[in-house]
């Protein structure tokens, strides 16, 4: 059977480092082509004093390179460098190739930006991609043709670290707590049996997590009401991050490079994510449950947060919560999470 190809519309934005390597490879191939054309011009024309004929050979070589790159980019979305690195240029709205005209325009813009005398420079184009608030890393030359560069073979995220076994015991004991143990609890709602009491012992806060790790903070001792509510609640919310990490929402969670809660906050989840271009703030946003509704809120981050619902994007205002629905995606800087509902 033929393996299904990934949908470019849902592929992640390509990392700036991989885009640089692809561009460098394309430029190397182009300069090798120019060197070959220069050699031909020298032996056939310049050595015999025919200067203009030699210059015409170079002009034709440059034009041929631009046309070749533009046509390949417009029809397939890939130049030789992008093909080697697994990158593609696609239209933002539907994930299809941008077309020959747009590909030629983008190739000309990059060619002009590479000429030092024009002053704009390739570094300025790269800076516009770094400062893209949408999280898609679209440079000015990408937005000019209505496209974005996606990664067709993103590097898999490393496996999440194994959690402290004591935390697993706590959660398991609370979910499997028998009704008889609840009935025999004292005034505080804590059962008298030693295993259950040990499982409900709160843990100390070891500090902010390292990037790429999700740490769950033990809740306070369970009462009869909270145990009954957890056993009766069949609806659960799960968040899937583009790093491969998933979080089953059980309370207040913070997302960022090294998230930390404010004084007095009962934080349940600390989700530390790596950010290649540092567009993710230290404590970027939060999510929490309001009854059976999942809510997200930007915490005044530098680059903001974007809610994507059925393909439509809207910015989240800092400090203003927004209700999430199954299938929603939320972009925090260069990271993204998808909302899943179970039950």
Q: What would you say this structure looks like, in words?
A:
This protein has 343 residues and is an alpha+beta fold. Helices cover 35% and strands 20% of the residues. It contains 10 helices and 14 strands. The protein has helices at residues 16-44, 51-76, 80-85, 100-113, 121-130, 140-144, 165-175, 179-183, 194-199, 224-232; strands at 87-91, 147-151, 214-216, 236-241, 246-248, 252-256, 267-272, 285-290, 293-298, 305-309, 312-316, 322-323, 329-332, 335-342. Strands 3-7-6-8-9-12 form a 6-stranded mixed β-sheet, with no helix packed on it. The protein has a 6-stranded antiparallel β-sheet with strand order 5-4-14-13-10-11, with no helix packed on it. It has a two-stranded antiparallel ribbon with strand order 1-2. A hairpin with a 4-residue loop joins strand 4 and strand 5. The longest helix is centred in the first third of the chain and has 29 residues, at 16-44.
For the residues shown, what is the average pLDDT? 77
Helix fraction by DSSP (H/I, runs of at least 4):
25-40%
* Order of neighbouring strands in the sheet with most strands: 3-7-6-8-9-12
Number of helices: 10
Q: Structural class, please?
A: alpha+beta
Low-confidence stretches: 1-5, 157-204
How big a fraction of the residues is strand? Answer: 15-25%
Shape verdict? elongated
Number of strands: 14
Q: Please give the radius of gyration in angstroms.
A: 27 Å
N-to-C SSE string, H for helix and E for strand: HHHEHHHEHHHEHEEEEEEEEEEE
For the termini, the CA-CA separation is 34 Å
Largest sheet: 6 strands, mixed
């Amino acid at each position: 059977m033929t393996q299904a190809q990934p949908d470019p519309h849902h592929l992640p934005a390509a990392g700036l480092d991989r885009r640089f390597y692809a561009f460098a490879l394309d430029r190397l191939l182009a300069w090798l082509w120019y060197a070959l054309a220069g050699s031909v011009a020298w032996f056939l024309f310049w050595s015999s004093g025919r200067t203009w004929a030699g210059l015409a050979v170079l002009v034709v070589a440059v034009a041929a390179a631009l046309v070749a790159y533009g046509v390949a980019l417009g029809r397939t979305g890939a130049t030789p460098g992008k093909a080697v690195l697994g990158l593609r240029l696609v239209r933002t709205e539907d994930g299809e190739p941008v077309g020959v005209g747009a590909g030629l325009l983008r190739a000309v813009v990059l060619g002009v930006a590479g000429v030092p005398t024009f002053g704009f420079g390739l570094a300025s184009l790269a800076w516009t991609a770094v400062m893209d608030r949408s999280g898609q890393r679209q440079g000015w030359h990408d937005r000019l043709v209505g496209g974005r560069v996606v990664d067709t073979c993103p590097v898999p995220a490393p496996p999440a670290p194994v959690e402290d076994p004591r935390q697993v015991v706590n959660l398991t004991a609370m979910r499997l707590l028998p009704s008889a143990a609840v009935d025999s609890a004292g005034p505080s709602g804590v059962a008298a049996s030693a295993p259950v009491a040990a499982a409900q012992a709160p843990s100390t806060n070891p500090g902010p997590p390292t990037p790429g790790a999700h740490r769950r903070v033990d809740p306070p001792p369970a009462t009869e009401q909270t145990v009954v509510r957890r056993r009766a609640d069949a609806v659960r919310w799960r968040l899937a991050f583009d790093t491969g990490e998933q979080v089953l929402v059980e309370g207040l969670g913070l997302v960022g490079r090294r998230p930390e809660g404010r004084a007095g906050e009962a934080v349940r989840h600390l989700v530390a994510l790596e950010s290649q271009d540092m567009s993710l703030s230290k404590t970027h946003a939060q999510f929490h449950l309001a009854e059976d509704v999942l809510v997200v809120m930007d915490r005044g981050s530098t680059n903001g947060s974007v809610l994507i619902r059925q393909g439509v994007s809207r910015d989240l205002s800092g400090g203003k919560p927004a209700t999430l629905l199954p299938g929603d995606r939320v972009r925090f800087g260069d990271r993204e999470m998808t909302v899943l509902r179970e039950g």
